[in-house]
Design goal:
42% of the residues are buried. The chain is globular. Helix 2 packs across helix 4 (71-97) and helix 12 (222-236) crosses helix 13 (255-261). Strands 2-3-1-4-5 form a 5-stranded parallel β-sheet. The protein is mainly alpha-helical. It has helices spanning 10-22, 31-42, 52-66, 71-97, 120-127, 138-142, 157-172, 176-179, 191-194, 202-206, 210-217, 222-236, 255-261, 274-289, 298-322, 335-340, 342-353, 359-371, 391-397, 399-405; strands at residues 110-112, 133-134, 243-247, 266-271, 330-334.
Length: 411
Amino acid sequence: MAAPPPHRPRVVRWLNRLGPLVAPRWPSLDPDDIVQAAARKAKSTDFGDLDFAERLPRIVEAVEREANLHWIGRVAVRQSLEMGLQSRFGLYRHRAEHPEIAGIPIERPVFIVGFPRTGTTILFNLLSQDPANRTPQGWEVQFPNPPPKRDTYTTDRRIEKAYKYFGQMDRMAPELPAIHEVGAQLPQECMPILAHTLLSPQPGIVYNIPSYQAWVDQQSAGPAYTYHRHFLEHLQSRYMKDRWVLKSPVHLRTLDALLDEYPDARLIFTHRDPAKTIPSLASLIYTIRGIVTDTVDARAVGREQFDWWADSLDHAMAVRAKRGDKSDQFVDIHFEDVISDPIAALRGAYERFEMPWTDESERRMRTFLENNPRGKHGTHRYELDDFGLRVEDIRARFENYCDTYGVPLVA
């Protein structure tokens, strides 16, 4: 059985035919041109981390050689790289103008670091309902300059701009909200922040660039988490609450670097039968890549995601075993508990982390659940065979993980 081809809106098909005829030399992916364009818009050329300048040509070379982009895909790459660099330039320009931002304490942040498709998003959304928790929203991650202000946080002009930006994504891949919803005023995970460093998995998720992802996996993630802290310092400089709450499954791959940067972090580790998560994840990546290319190999995506996430989970387990002194900073939550009673699961995490639980927080969480039932945006449908995956192979590869954390096998 073959996976159905990615959705391609008529306007995208039309633009892919017309674009190369009307603008055969645009968009340019020349690194110098991207840097100059971002610098003009940001009115700065401060990379913050000089090694970044060496990563940009590397990713462009991989995209040109391996990604097989259509015309709209090239536009998306150009937009992504230029906007990310513009955000980076603007952040460090503001930081130079306001040196008091540096070193503002980020104490005991909460990170959701579980495997993808294990309930991390619903927990993240519920945690954002607590008035004491500061979660980064999509609009401020996408357009972080200048730092948001408390009195205009819900009325900032960039919110409307972000709704248009995320709306474009939904039009390009209408099935995406049923798999993983993102939005201007929804909590945004850390991967788009880390993407500004070109040391994150995001490019390798969106584009088929295995050589670049292999190179990233061999690099120190330290500079990425230094930038991550700088980004949070930037956002909180004019608007902060009691604590940061953050989320991304990609932290599993670099959990040691996260704990080096945030040694007092509190971590929610979610778990689910990998025979459910791996095929669902492969379907998500297949959908995302279908936005930028007409040639997505579903079976190659399945094998790639199977191997990469298995290695990531091995790393996270090894870090937890090595850093036994931090065991009290972790709480484990199973997907079944998220489905049956997510509020009770979070109440247990609050107790573990000695965070105040309030009636107001619970009321807001329950209201959110009532207004956002599971499946609100449709059902995510996929088949293991579409991605060349077999339950017995998944069972064998993740046996140690399931035994270690008592993960129920339900597939």
